[in-house]
Amino acid sequence: MNKKVLSTTIVLYTLAISCSAPVSPSNTQPGKVIGGGCDGCELMYINLPKQIVSVDTSAGWNSGGQPLKISGKVLKADGTTPAPGVIIYYWQTDKEGYYANRPYLNEKAKRHGYIRGWLKTAADGRYTLYTIRPAPYPDDSLPAHIHLSIKEPDLPNEYYTDEINFEDDPLLIPYFKRYPPENRGGSGVVQVSLQNSMQVAEHNIVLGLNIPGYPDK
Ligand SMILES: [Fe+2]
């Protein structure tokens, strides 16, 4: 296999395995895994920092992409009480739509690319992420997205919420017509506005909302 073919194969393989699609029932323990499990959410524990704070600047920030600030609140299941101490793990494509790798990345975590990181909500439930606008996968109908996996301090396992999608993405409505969103944790669709040269969006998450097996239900 020549270098170009090998490179293309690696890219396609990475695209194929990087989404957090729900795992099949045979891979889960029904009733035991809150949220039903997902393929890749557990990678949040690889290189998990000991100190995680409520504001993070992603590794993609200086990569030349469109600067993007996403901030919001994580709320308890009642939809109003702020939830402090919740870890949000994010991973996303780069400005070309790839989960681009770097030599220093952990072998297992490579599938999430180098733009991955963690936030922990502050006492008021807030978090802020400075990153870049991800591009959709090349030659694909899937809208651009940022994956999120949530680990609450009092729950035994992590679960994924709806990915962050962008209202101005032309791929969004055609895709949602075919695959309506689950609204896990609430809608993941954000409206983007421009502050100077930075895109800014708000994204709140309601813990447990539309999460199967969530203990308060
Ligand atoms: Fe993805």
What does this protein structure show overall?
This protein is of the alpha/beta class and 217 residues long. It has one domain: Protocatechuate 3,4-Dioxygenase, subunit A. It is 10% helix and 24% strand. It is built from two helices and twelve strands, in the order αββββββββαββββ. The protein has helices at residues 3-17, 172-178, and strands at residues 55-57, 67-75, 87-92, 116-120, 126-132, 146-151, 159-160, 165-166, 189-190, 193-195, 198-202, 205-206. The strands form three sheets. Strands 1, 2, 5, 10, 11 and 12 form a six-stranded mixed β-sheet that branches. Helix 2 links the parallel strand 8 (165-166) and strand 9. Residues 1-18 and 20-29 have low confidence and may be disordered. Fe (ii) ion binds at residues 18-19, 145, 147.
> What is the gyration radius calculated from CA atoms?
17 Å
Inertia-based shape: globular
Residues in helices, as a percent range: 10-25%
Secondary-structure-derived class: alpha/beta
Distance between the termini: 53 Å
State the CATH topology.
Protocatechuate 3,4-Dioxygenase, subunit A
Q: State the helix count.
A: 2
Strand tally is 12
Percent of sequence in beta strands: 15-25%
Q: Report mean pLDDT, rounded to a whole number.
A: 88
Determine and state the CATH class: Mainly Beta
The CATH architecture would be Sandwich
Give the total of domains: 1
What ions, cofactors and ligands are bound?
Answer: fe (ii) ion
* Main beta-sheet strand count, sense and barrel state: 6 strands, mixed
Q: Unreliable stretches, pLDDT < 50, 5 or more residues?
A: 1-18, 20-29
Helix-strand pattern:
HEEEEEEEEHEEEE
Let me know the CATH homologous superfamily: Aromatic compound dioxygenase
